[in-house]
Amino acid sequence: MPDIDVAIIGGGPSGLAAAIECTKNDLSYVVIEKGSLVDAIRRFPINMVFFTTPNLLEIGELPLVCSREKPTRLEALKYYRRAAEYYRLRTKLYTRVDAVRRINGHFQVESSFTRGQVGTAEPITARKLVVATGYYDNPNYLGIPGEDLPKASHYYVEAHPYYGLDVAVIGGGNSAAETALDLFRSGVKVRLIHRHKEMSTHIKYWVRPDINNRISRGEIEAHLETEVEAILPDKLELKNKKGERYTIPNDAVLALTGYRPDYTFLESMGITIDNESGKPHTDPETCETNVSGIYLAGGIVAGRQTNKIFIENGRFHGQKIVKHLSSS
Fold first, then answer.
1. Tens digits of residue pLDDT in 204-231
2. pLDDT tens per residue, range 182-206
3. DSSP count for the chain of H helices, then E strands
4. What dihedral do alpha carbons 286, 291, 292, 298 form, nearest 10°?
5. Which domains are seen in the chain, by residue range?
6. Fewest beta carbons within 10 Å, which of 37, 61, 95, 256?
7. Residues 2 and 126 sit within 8 Å (Cβ to Cβ)
8. Is 274:267 a contact under the CB 8 Å cutoff?
9. 35: nearest Cα among 161, 175, 151, 136
10. What average pLDDT does range 103-130 have in this prediction?
11. CB 192 within 8 A of CB 163
12. Residue 306: is its pLDDT beyond 80?
């Protein structure tokens, strides 16, 4: 007999929403998360403001109260902690899933601790499996020399450590634009590098004119239609659309070029991935994959099209999943 009905891998909003649905339907479950509760949000820039209104981030019919029109990162963290406490969600935090094995029609989840605890966690056997791991842990690497240097990062937290430095921000989306602006307003020399002619049309409506104005005034030095060919200790090697190669001085690199799901983990369980879109095979009505009994929830469903699934719509995947597995 399995230990529980459902093992939920991933403690982000979508995973928590699935756990709440299990609670409401008297299904035993556990949420296994390799970091903190809603770990991706914890790692967002400290002063980040969400694009959406608070009601679209809510789970479990609990209101998200914030001081302004848009919730901040801190307000979201407080909210999801409160949701976990209210529903007394069963979680195993700082526990990484190492392998999932099919045994006698059930799923055995093998895991280990990520905060230095001695030994491995006890295996858990579940009747069904929900994977809600998102994509924030897997950057889209540039694949260029020097990307592994200590001065290069695919994540941005705050501006202060970069004060007095010459910083390159690579990318053209929301993260790159907001980071460049935050650095600029903190007295940092910012050089923005983007392979296209213009910044993305998906940038937040209040950010887009701001970044464009800073670029047009030369306050942020923009290298558009340009790619980084190499990261060196004190400079970057660039190549523009005309094929011209040149270097710029550099102290630090923030390569904010997006993220992708962990395809290796999905494929290890037999889940089929579309080569073109990177989307895992799922039934849109039930979120069940091509592997019977394994469901996906949240941003991981979208593959490389990460602008298609957000908390706003991923939070409802748990309802579809629990409705289907309750009847199976």
1. 888 999 999 999 999 999 999 999 999 9
2. 999 999 999 999 999 999 988 888 8
3. 8, 15
4. -30
5. 4-138+259-326 (3.50.50.60), 152-255 (3.50.50.60)
6. 61
7. yes
8. no
9. 136
10. 88
11. no
12. no
